C-alpha cells in the first residue's frame, strides 16, 4: 500500500463517522471553491486581458505579465510544498488571493514602479495557489471515492472534479470581460452593420501582419482607442472588490483538508525551502513528468498568446481596446463549454482520440489565423477566439488531470512542475511580445503544440507496449511502482 493512503476499511469507517451527507458536503466544497476562483479571476483576467494594449508604451503591460509568470517560476520551485505544509490548502488559497490584490490596486496609478512589483507579488502567490487547489481537488476526490465505497474510480473522479471546478473558473473569463466591455464601452456609438469604424488599415496592419512595437516605424499612428481614465478607475474598483469577496468566501465556506486526514495523511511537515526545490526537481526523475513538460509549456504559451498578442494585434488593432472584453467573452464561454463536456466526451471517445482531435482542430485554427485577412467586423474575432477557447479548455482539463492521475501521493510536486513549466512558456511568450511579429509567434505556438503532443503520445505509446506485456496493467504506472516498493 502506498505510504500516506489509508486502507479502504479504515478510510470508509472514518468517512462514515462524518455523516451520511458527507458526499454532498464535498460537492459543496468544490462549488464554493470554484465560485471563489471565478470571482477572483473575474478581476484578474478582466485586468490582464487589457494589459498589453492598455499599457503599450514601453511595452509596460507585456513586461508586467512577464514578471507575473517569471516570479511564478520561482514560486513553483520554492514555495508550494513549504506554504501548503505550514498553512494547509485552504489558508494557502486565502493568503494567495490576497497577494493578487496589489496588482489590481496598481491599475489606479500604472507605472513601472507600481505594476512590476505588484506583478511579482501575483507570481509568488500563484504558485502556492494553484498547487493548493489541485491538491485539494485530488484529495477530496479520493475522499468522495471512499464515501461511495469505490463505486466510482478515483482517477475518473479527479477528471470530473477538475471539470466541475473549471466550469466555474472559466466563467471568470466571461464575467471579467463582460464587466470590462460594459464599463469601457459605455457612451460609445453603436457599430453599424456589424462593423467598427477605424482609422487603421485593418487588413494590412492587424492580425498576423501586426509588427512588433520595436519594429513599427509608424507605431504612434496606430490608434488603439484608449478609454477615459474615469472608466478605467471605475473598472479597477469593481475588480478590487471582487477579489475581497473571493478571499472571504474561501475563508468562511470551504472545509479544511484536516477533515479528510483519514484518507490521505499529510507528509512530514519539516520541509525547508531548499527541500521544496529538491522535491519539485526530483519529480523530474519520472520519465512521464519529463514527457509532459513540453505540453505544459505549450499551454502557457498559447494562453499568453491569446491574452497578450491576440487581444492587441487582432482585437485592439482592428476594433479598439474597449472591444477586447467583447471578443474575450466568447473565449470564456467556449472554455466553460469545453470544461463541462470534456469528461463526457473522454468517456465515449477516450483520452487519446480526444487529444488527437483537439490537436488537429487547434492546428487548423492557427493556420487559418496565419492566412486570414482581418476585417473590422467584430463578430469574426469572437468566432476565432471561441474556437481557441474550446481547444484551450480541453488541453487544460486533460493535462491537469494527468498530473493527478499519474502521481497520486506526489500531487504537490507534480502540479508544481506543471505550473512551473506552464509559467516558463508564458514568460517566453510575453517577453517575445515586443520583439517578434505576430506571424512568427503563431508559428512558434504551432511548433510547441506539435512537440508537446509528441511527448504526450510517447506516454501513451509506452503504456500500450506495457499493456501488451501485462494486460492487467493500469495507466497509473508511477502509482503502481510506489505500491510495489
Notes on the structure:
It is a single chain. With 485 residues, the protein is an all-alpha fold. It has a single domain, classed as Growth Hormone, Chain: A (Up-down Bundle). 75% of the residues lie in helices and 0% in strands. It contains 16 helices and no strands. The longest helix is centred in the first third of the chain and has 36 residues, at 112-147. The chain is globular and about 60 Å long. The N and C termini lie close together (9 Å).
Sheet bearing the most strands, described? none
The count of DSSP E runs of length 2 or more, i.e. the number of strands, is: 0
Shape: globular
Radius of gyration: 22 Å
Mean residue pLDDT: 80
Portion in helices = over 70%
What structural category characterises the helix and strand content?
mainly alpha
Secondary-structure element order, N to C: HHHHHHHHHHHHHHHH
Number of helices: 16
CATH architecture: Up-down Bundle
Write down the CATH topology. Growth Hormone, Chain: A
Using the coordinates above, name the CATH class. Answer: Mainly Alpha
Unreliable stretches (pLDDT < 50, length at least 5) are 1-7, 265-271, 475-485
Task: For the record, give the distance between the C-alpha atoms at the N and C termini, rounded to a whole number.
Answer: 9 Å
Residue share in β-strands: under 5%
How would you name the CATH homologous superfamily?
A: MFS general substrate transporter like domains
Amino acid at each position: 500500500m502506498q505510504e500516506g493512503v489509508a486502507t479502504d476499511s479504515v478510510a470508509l469507517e472514518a468517512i462514515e463517522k462524518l455523516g451520511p451527507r458527507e458526499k454532498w458536503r464535498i460537492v459543496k466544497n468544490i462549488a464554493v471553491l470554484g465560485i471563489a476562483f471565478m470571482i477572483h479571476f473575474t478581476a484578474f483576467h478582466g485586468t490582464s486581458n487589457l494589459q498589453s494594449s492598455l499599457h503599450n508604451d514601453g511595452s509596460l503591460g507585456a513586461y508586467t505579465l512577464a514578471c507575473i509568470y517569471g516570479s511564478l517560476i520561482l514560486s513553483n520551485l520554492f514555495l508550494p510544498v513549504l506554504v501548503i505544509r505550514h498553512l494547509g490548502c485552504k489558508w494557502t488559497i486565502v493568503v494567495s488571493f490576497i497577494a493578487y490584490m496589489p496588482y489590481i490596486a496598481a491599475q489606479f496609478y500604472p507605472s513601472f514602479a507600481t505594476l512590476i512589483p505588484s506583478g511579482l507579488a501575483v507570481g509568488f502567490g500563484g504558485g502556492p495557489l494553484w498547487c493548493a487547489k489541485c491538491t485539494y481537488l485530488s484529495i477530496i476526490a479520493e475522499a468522495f471515492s471512499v464515501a461511495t465505497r469505490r463505486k466510482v474510480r478515483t482517477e475518473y473522479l479527479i477528471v470530473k472534479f477538475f471539470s466541475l471546478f473549471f466550469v466555474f473558473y472559466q466563467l471568470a473569463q466571461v464575467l471579467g470581460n463582460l464587466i470590462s466591455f460594459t464599463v469601457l464601452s459605455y457612451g460609445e456609438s453603436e457599430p453599424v452593420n456589424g462593423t467598427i469604424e477605424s482609422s487603421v488599415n485593418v487588413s494590412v496592419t492587424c492580425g498576423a501582419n501586426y509588427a512588433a512595437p520595436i519594429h513599427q516605424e509608424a507605431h504612434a499612428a496606430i490608434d488603439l482607442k484608449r478609454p477615459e481614465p474615469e472608466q478605467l478607475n471605475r473598472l479597477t474598483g469593481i475588480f478590487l472588490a471582487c477579489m475581497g469577496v473571493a478571499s472571504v468566501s474561501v475563508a468562511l465556506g470551504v472545509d479544511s483538508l484536516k477533515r479528510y486526514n483519514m484518507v490521505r495523511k499529510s507528509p512530514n511537515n519539516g520541509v525547508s525551502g531548499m527541500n521544496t526545490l529538491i522535491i519539485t526537481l526530483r519529480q523530474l526523475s519520472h520519465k512521464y513528468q519529463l514527457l509532459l513538460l513540453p505540453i505544459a509549456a505549450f499551454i502557457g504559451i498559447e494562453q499568453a498568446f491569446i491574452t497578450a498578442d491576440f487581444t492587441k494585434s487582432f482585437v485592439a488593432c482592428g476594433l479598439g481596446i474597449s472591444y477586447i472584453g467583447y471578443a474575450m467573452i466568447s473565449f470564456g464561454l467556449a472554455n466553460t463549454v469545453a470544461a463541462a463536456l470534456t469528461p463526457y466526451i473522454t468517456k465515449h471517445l477516450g483520452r487519446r482520440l480526444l487529444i488527437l482531435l483537439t490537436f488537429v482542430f487547434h492546428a487548423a485554427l492557427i493556420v487559418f489565423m496565419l492566412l486570414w485577412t482581418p476585417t473590422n467586423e467584430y463578430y469574426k474575432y469572437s468566432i476565432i477566439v471561441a474556437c481557441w477557447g474550446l481547444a484551450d479548455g480541453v488541453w487544460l482539463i486533460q493535462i491537469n488531470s494527468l498530473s493527478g492521475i499519474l502521481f497520486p501521493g506526489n500531487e504537490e510536486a507534480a502540479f508544481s512542475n506543471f505550473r512551473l513549466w506552464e509559467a516558463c512558456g508564458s514568460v517566453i511568450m510575453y517577453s517575445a511580445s515586443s520583439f517578434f511579429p505576430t506571424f512568427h509567434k503563431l508559428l512558434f505556438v504551432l511548433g510547441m503544440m506539435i512537440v508537446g503532443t509528441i511527448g504526450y503520445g510517447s506516454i501513451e505509446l509506452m503504456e500500450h507496449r506495457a499493456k501488451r506485456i501485462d494486460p492487467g496493467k493500469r495507466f497509473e504506472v508511477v502509482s503502481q511502482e510506489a505500491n510495489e516498493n
